[in-house]
């Protein structure tokens, strides 16, 4: 194993995380042939193929899946050593990869990143959005693809801190029958089609759980990954939906309906993997976030 270098591990993780040699090369800012040659050299040294290569996809072999957590641990240790040296000089350097939801209006992320750059110019932030919502971001945290993630309904196996909470309101078009009554039960709402996010998104999970607890079944006829655009689909008469107030423009033409037998709230948390020690760059990000958004 003496011929295995940290560069080999970095390239291996890039291919594993992006799912392809071309994507890894772009992420690493190197040519694809360099990535391919490095992976082949690593496989020769290990005596096993780490990836199954087809024209359609690149996936980890059983050996690759076994090697993956060890490779992450080794790179994490190397980065921790580098952090220690930089810490002696009073400098914080490194990269923090942050997973975000498609809409997190409860945190001003651009302002937070601007403040981070001003305080720690040696820290680089990479933003990643998971189209599988909070569930996808949580899984990427476990796999080591992310250092930090903003999640709603975070699972218990992650280290989390609540940042903010906001009510979910039921929105309908202004001409909708429910707009005239202004009040409804979950059972009454279930008579109408819904606009919602796909399964795995916190917004969907919260509403699904409320209907399940009431013993009521609803139908979601339109699923959209970007919840920030949901109001437009409701405006078009494609369904009704639960949304945070910040996602609905003032003059949207939508009306809110009081749900008399449920109180739905959307909570935003910041999460890290409980099995990995945060790097200096990650700690700097978390510390600044705590300053601006102390736990409620």
From TrEMBL:
Xref: Pfam families: HTH_1, LysR_substrate
Record Gene3D superfamilies: 3.40.190.290, Winged helix-like DNA-binding domain superfamily/Winged helix DNA-binding domain (1.10.10.10)
UniProt key word Hydrolase: no
One GO term describing the cellular component: cytosol
InterPro entries the record matches: HTH-type_LysR_regulators, LysR_HTH_N, LysR_subst-bd, WH-like_DNA-bd_sf, WH_DNA-bd_sf
Source superkingdom: Bacteria
Keywords in alphabetical order: DNA-binding, Transcription, Transcription regulation
Positions of the HTH lysR-type domain: 4-61
Transmembrane segments: none
PROSITE patterns in the cross-refs: HTH_LYSR
Gene Ontology MF terms in the entry: DNA binding; DNA-binding transcription factor activity
PANTHER family, sorted: BLR3139 PROTEIN, HTH-TYPE TRANSCRIPTIONAL REGULATOR YBHD
Family: Belongs to the LysR transcriptional regulatory family.
Record's protein name: DNA-binding transcriptional regulator, LysR family
């Amino acid at each position: 194993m003496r011929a295995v270098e940290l560069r080999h591990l970095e390239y291996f993780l890039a291919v594993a995380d992006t799912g392809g040699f071309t994507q890894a090369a772009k992420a690493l800012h190197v040519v694809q042939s360099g990535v391919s040659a490095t992976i082949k050299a690593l496989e020769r040294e290990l005596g096993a193929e780490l990836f199954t290569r087809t024209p359609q996809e690149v996936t980890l072999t059983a050996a690759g899946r076994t090697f993956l957590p060890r490779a992450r641990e080794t790179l994490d240790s190397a980065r921790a050593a580098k952090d220690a040296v930089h810490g002696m000089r009073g400098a914080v350097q490194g990269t923090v990869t942050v997973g975000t939801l498609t809409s997190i209006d409860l945190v001003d992320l651009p302002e937070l990143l601007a403040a981070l750059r001003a305080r720690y110019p040696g820290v680089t932030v990479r933003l990643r959005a998971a189209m599988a919502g909070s569930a996808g971001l949580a899984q990427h945290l476990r796999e080591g693809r992310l250092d930090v993630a903003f999640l709603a309904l975070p699972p218990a196996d992650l280290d989390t801190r609540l940042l903010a909470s906001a009510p979910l309101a039921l929105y309908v078009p202004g001409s909708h029958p429910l707009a005239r009554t202004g009040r409804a039960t979950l059972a009454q709402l279930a008579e109408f089609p819904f606009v919602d996010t796909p399964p795995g998104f916190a917004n969907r999970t919260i509403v699904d759980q409320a209907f399940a607890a009431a013993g009521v079944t609803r139908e979601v006829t339109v699923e959209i990954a970007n919840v920030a655009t949901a109001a437009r689909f409701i405006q078009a008469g494609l369904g009704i939906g639960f949304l945070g107030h910040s996602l609905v423009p003032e003059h949207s033409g939508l009306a809110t309906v009081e749900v008399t037998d449920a109180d739905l709230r959307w909570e935003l948390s910041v999460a890290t993997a409980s099995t990995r020690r945060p790097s200096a760059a990650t700690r700097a990000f978390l510390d600044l976030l705590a300053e601006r958004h102390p736990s409620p």
